[in-house]
Each structure stands twice: as C-alpha cells, then as structure tokens.
C-alpha cells in the first residue's frame, strides 16, 4: 500500500514538472513492486510564444464646472483649460472682469503643478458675429489679457499667444433653421490654455 501511494505521488509530480525547453526529457519512471516501472507523462511547454503587444489608446478626462464656463480636459499628455470668454470679459471687450481673477488663479495653480518649465499656449476665440478682421483682433487681445494675468501669477512661464477669431467653433453659431443660436455662440467665445504634461 505504501509503495503504490508513493508511486502515485511521484507520478503526479512528474506531470507538473516542465521539461527543459531545449529538448524533451525521457519520461520519469517510478518503481512499482513486482512489475514494470510506471511511466508518467511529461508536460511540454516549449510551444511558440505569441506576441501580446497591441495598440495603446489614450484615455481622456474632462472636468467642468456645472455651468461649463470652465473645463479642464486631458487627452494623452495634452491638457487644455478652457474658460468661457463671458466669464473673463464684458461683451465686446478685452479687459478682464473681477470674476476672471478667481478662474485664472485656478488655472495658475494647475500650471504651477504640471507645466513648470514647459511652454504654454493661450488661444483666443470669438463667435461668428462681426467681421473676420474684427473677431481676429478681439480674440488676440483677449488672449493677450489672459497671458498678462497668468504671467503675474506664474512668473517665468513661456507663453505663446494667438487669436483665431471665429475659427474652430465647438458649437453651431446658428440653428438648423438658420436662426441665431445664443448658447452655441457663447460656447465658441472662449480662451484655451494648453500645455503638454
């Protein structure tokens, strides 16, 4: 009884022991009383290894205030803070309002934490009302005003400023029937602060 239990244990251990990868070894033999030795199978794990690599997708993240006047969006290593121009400026103006100070202070904290020593882009946008030339100038002046304020809050940062006018709208300026879309135009009036993390 003892020898057959011993043979059974050896047989089980043999099935769990991998063979060397260069060439399979002969089967392990366990002695059995009064007969031929028992032969245990050998597990061969020297098969082909498959490439498990694949495309890595960027995971994005978007956080915004309830009224969506400020959004903080991440895509890969790129972070963009978008502030509604209506929060920063009075209608048709490029002078920062009192409300703008707290919004830009929040952006400055993020720049200090994540953009130290990196270039930061500030892009101004308008809605589609008014002429192209006027909108380009207004969007540039607004981006400059944001750069000036952030320059005081985050000194030593290298800012690149551009005004894009009504280019790159994020919402329709007009309704499908051709009527005015005030909510869409409000979303298009914005300043984007972007950097690579």
Automatic annotation (TrEMBL):
Its main location: membrane. InterPro entries: Bact_OuterMem_StrucFunc, OMP_bac, OmpA-like, OmpA-like_sf. Residues 76-197 form the OmpA-like domain. CDD domains: OmpA_C-like (cd07185). It is found in: Cell outer membrane. Residues 17-46, 164-197 are annotated as: Disordered. Keywords: Cell outer membrane, Membrane, Signal. GO terms for cellular component: cell outer membrane. It comes from the Bacteria. The keyword Calcium does not apply. Residues 1-21 form the signal peptide. The keyword Flavoprotein does not apply. PROSITE patterns: OMPA_2. This is OmpA family protein. It comes from Nonomuraea diastatica.
């Amino acid at each position: 009884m003892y020898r057959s239990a011993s043979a059974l244990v050896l047989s089980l251990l043999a099935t769990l022991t991998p063979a060397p990868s260069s060439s399979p070894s002969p089967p392990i033999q366990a002695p059995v009383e009064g007969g031929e030795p028992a032969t245990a199978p050998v597990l061969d794990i020297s098969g082909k290894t498959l490439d498990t690599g694949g495309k890595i997708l960027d995971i994005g993240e978007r956080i915004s205030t309830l009224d969506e006047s400020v959004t903080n969006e991440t895509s890969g290593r790129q972070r963009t803070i978008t502030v509604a121009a209506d929060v920063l400026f009075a209608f048709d103006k490029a002078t920062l309002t009192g409300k703008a100070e707290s919004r830009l202070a929040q952006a400055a904290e993020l720049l200090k934490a994540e953009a130290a020593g990196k270039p930061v882009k500030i892009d101004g946008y308008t809605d589609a009302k008014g002429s192209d030339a006027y909108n380009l100038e207004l969007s540039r002046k607004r981006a400059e005003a944001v750069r000036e304020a952030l320059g005081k809050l985050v000194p030593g940062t290298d800012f690149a400023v551009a005004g894009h006018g009504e280019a790159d709208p994020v919402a329709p300026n007009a309704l499908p029937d051709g009527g005015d879309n005030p909510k869409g135009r409000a979303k298009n009036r914005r300043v984007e602060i972007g950097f690579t993390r």
